[in-house]
Write a structure and sequence with these properties.
The complex is a heterodimer of chains A (443) and B (271). Chain A is 38% helix and 13% strand. Chain A is of the alpha/beta class and 443 residues long. Chain A has a seven-stranded mixed β-sheet with strand order 1-7-6-5-4-2-3, sandwiched between helices. A five-stranded mixed β-sheet of chain A has the order 8-9-12-11-10. The radius of gyration of chain A is 23 Å and the shape is globular. The longest helix of chain B is centred in the last third of the chain and has 15 residues, at 252-266. In chain B, strands 1-2-4-3-5-6-7-8 form an eight-stranded mixed β-sheet, with helices on both faces. Chain B has helices spanning 40-48, 72-85, 98-109, 130-137, 141-151, 168-176, 185-194, 198-203, 222-230, 247-250, 252-266; strands at 2-5, 8-13, 25-29, 52-56, 91-96, 114-120, 209-214, 236-240. Chain B has a single domain, classed as Alpha/Beta hydrolase fold, catalytic domain (Rossmann fold). Classes of the chains: A alpha/beta (443), B alpha/beta (271). Chains A and B meet through helix 3, strand 1, helix 10 and helix 11 of A and helix 1, helix 4, helix 5, helix 6 and helix 11 of B.
């Protein structure tokens, strides 16, 4: 093992290899090179003792596919390995992952500090739905680092945010916010859907739990809904008395204290044992397998997404129909330097831009592009566009839209991996229509 | 649960069941730089099946107080003190890696107290690579990364944790980095490197002993484990294929099955 001239170096597998192999051993699966799809609801027990051992968490294994499934388990381990996490729990969607995370952490009467620039569905979860469970939220603008500190209350259980906010592309200063959270004895939870672990591993920058909508770039193909939560394993749940659900004996498992028993994987164990048992937002094995196919090519796709995005930024910045462009690669973007630090492999493929002519021009643009798909998704291999104020964020009132950094002229662009010339040509069609909306719409 | 030994607080997992002094005691001793959590897939079974279990955090490790003990001999005496502190006169010991050196030394010193010995990934001596030792003593996280690399077999490097969703290379690494590396791993590695009495201690052991070894173990290879086992009268050996040094996780079910048979036969539970 030793090379005295060069010194010792660990030979654990690196990112691209883990993307293809982590979490799966063919020799334990009939030699099947591809991950099998375990399309089953339940698993035979060897005997009564074996059944009891599984229910008591005495040993690993599967009981019922709502709780765990071998195909889903491969996906979970693979994403945990890519994120540098200790454990992961896959869910039926990204929203399910966020909800499960919050419900594993919180009880009625708790409080959360949350970045204001989020996917619209997430905003509604924190603003409208969680209060029904007695969990309240204070929103803070992502660049207002000091604001996160000021918003923390005695009953605050975490800080939550998207590293790059949807759709305005504002960055949260994750290392600084992590320090604020840890000084207050609470974890930082980051939705890193936009980045994937290829662009950023939030755990390396202080995040304690990472959530993803795997539906997006991780899968890439836009065929399957999936989400995941990944545990960093560093957060000490026993440092204070804020997390009794993690530290106190849990009646549901013979008085088990998850933090004492499972340490760096305690959160995931609790989320699975309680959350999947009681809420049941499980991922189907077929969808887990579909997502695994996408993850196999994650780094290859992300490089192309990012190079195409930077080409599109240049194109949009020089275009007469464009009022403004927001992307962290733009030198005058307020978070340009922070993005270089946190996103060294690329700044992502989400661009927000303002179209001259406001909402009417935006609508004409969207209605006339042919290659770009108008739909409520991001991170597909195909280029996607939407007008957030009338789509993804349409359930917000004017004040909330403004607080979330949305304007009526904003187009949200998720740059795909098509030939860049074809994307630009398609946008020319859209811009021509936007300049003459009435004429084009009548044709 | 927490209790005191030598005026320092000790943490031990009881396997998810209340500690019951009426049941026979099994003590699990972790390897270098690690904690009680390495045993989670073995301890809970015994705790639910007629035993009282203590998966210890050695002093200065995990949730235990105090400073790390600097020699294997001190750790062996400390295990004996643990047995006294919890009000027992005897116990069955299970060790992994460095924990094997500790339990072998303890069994040789306290022959009336220790009733069975289970050695997982053990050897009579564990000399350290000097560069690895230096990295650990300087708190370089590379020491942990190297340990996780060498401690997992080729199959284990891909993952495949028996508990769905857990990735054991990162979990083990996080355990070893949970406290200052030089104060845990550094001290432990030095203690292993300094310990020379393993083979002599083994010759004194007259209790039922089991060695579980793994074909891909680079840290305590099969031939070293067998050399130790050969010195213990009547010692049994079980060898796991396609598995590395972290067999507690890589082949948790197999390890548990072999342990169950050995311990329940030689140190029966109270039913």
């Amino acid at each position: 093992m030793s090379d005295k001239k060069k010194g010792l170096h660990p030979h654990t597998y690196k990112f691209d290899t883990l993307s293809l192999h982590a979490g799966y051993q063919p020799h334990k699966n009939a030699g099947s090179r591809q991950v099998p799809i375990y399309q089953t609801t339940s698993y035979l027990f060897d005997d009564v003792d074996h059944a009891a051992a599984l229910f008591n968490l005495e040993r690993g294994g599967h009981i019922y596919s709502r709780i765990s499934n071998p195909t889903v388990g491969v996906l979970e381990e693979r994403v945990a390995s890519l994120e540098g996490g200790t454990a992961a729990l896959a869910t039926s969607s990204g929203m399910a992952a966020i909800f499960l995370t919050v419900m594993t952490l919180c009880e009625s009467g708790d409080h959360l500090v949350v970045s204001s620039q989020l996917y619209g569905g997430t905003v509604n979860l924190f603003r409208l739905t969680l209060p029904k469970f007695g969990i309240k939220t204070t929103f803070v603008k992502p660049r207002d680092t000091e604001g996160f500190k000021k918003a923390i209350q005695k009953n605050t259980k975490c800080i939550f945010g998207e590293l790059v906010g949807n759709p305005g592309n504002e960055l949260m200063n994750m290392p600084e916010v992590a320090k604020i959270a840890h000084d207050a004895g609470i974890p930082l939870i980051i939705d890193a859907t936009y980045q994937t672990p290829y662009l950023c591993k939030p755990i390396e920058h202080g995040a304690d739990i990472v959530v993803h909508s795997l539906t997006k770039w991780m899968a890439g193909h836009g065929s399957s809904m999936a989400g995941i939560l990944v545990e960093g394993g560093k957060f000490d749940w026993m440092q204070n008395d804020k997390f009794p659900t993690m530290t106190k004996p849990y009646e549901g498992y013979h008085g088990l204290s998850f933090a004492e028993e499972f340490g760096p994987t305690a959160f995931t164990m609790k989320a699975r044992a309680e959350g999947m048992r009681d809420f049941g937002p499980c991922l189907s094995p077929q969808n887990a397998w579909n997502v695994l196919q996408g993850i196999e090519t994650l780094s290859v796709r992300m490089k192309k997404h990012c190079s195409n995005a930077e080409e599109m930024v240049k194109y949009l910045l020089g275009h007469e129909s464009v009022a403004w462009v927001s992307h962290p690669s733009v030198p005058d973007h307020p978070d340009h330097e922070l993005a270089k630090k946190l996103l060294p492999n690329g700044r992502g493929s989400m661009i927000a831009f303002g179209i001259k002519g406001g909402k009417d021009a935006g609508v004409a643009f969207i209605n006339n592009v042919k290659l770009a798909s108008h739909l409520a998704n991001v991170g597909d291999t195909r280029t996607l566009v939407i007008h957030p104020a009338s789509g993804t964020h349409s359930q917000m009132d004017e004040a909330t839209l403004k607080f979330a950094g949305l304007s009526h002229d904003m187009i949200r662009l998720s740059v795909g991996i098509e030939d860049i010339d074809d994307i630009k040509n398609d946008f020319e069609i859209g811009f021509r229509a936007a300049r003459k909306p009435r004429l084009v719409s009548n044709q | 649960m927490k209790f005191k030994v030598n005026n320092e607080e000790v943490y031990a997992s009881t396997g998810g069941r209340p500690f019951d002094k009426n049941k026979p005691l099994i003590i699990f001793v972790h390897g270098s730089g690690l904690t009680h959590m390495t045993w989670v897939l073995q301890t809970r079974y015994f705790a639910f099946h007629g035993y009282s279990v203590l998966a210890l955090d050695l002093p200065g490790h995990g949730l235990s107080g105090g400073k790390s003990l600097k020699s294997i001999e001190e750790m062996a005496d400390w295990i004996s003190n643990v047995i006294d502190a919890v009000g027992y006169k005897e116990a069955s010991l299970v060790g992994h890696s460095q924990g094997c050196l500790v339990t072998v030394e303890c069994a040789s010193r306290y022959q009336d107290k220790i009733k069975t010995l289970s050695l997982i990934g053990g050897a009579g001596a564990i000399p350290m690579n000097p560069e690895l030792l230096s990295l650990a003593e300087n708190s370089d996280p590379k020491a942990v990364d190297l340990m996780m690399d060498w401690a997992h077999g080729p199959a284990g490097h891909f993952g495949g944790h028996p508990v769905p969703g857990l990735y054991h290379i990162n979990t083990g690494g996080m355990l070893a980095k949970s406290r200052t590396i030089k104060d845990t791993l550094g001290v432990d590695f030095r203690a292993c490197d300094n310990y020379k009495n393993g083979f002599e201690a083994a010759k004194k052991i007259k209790i039922p002993t089991l060695s579980i070894l793994a074909t891909d173990d680079k840290m305590c290879p099969v031939k070293e484990g067998k050399k130790l086992a050969d010195l213990i009268d009547g010692s049994k050996v079980d060898i796991i294929d396609n598995c590395g040094h972290m067999m507690l996780l890589e082949e948790a079910d197999r390890v548990l099955a072999v342990l169950k048979k050995f311990i329940t036969t030689n140190y029966p539970p109270k039913t």
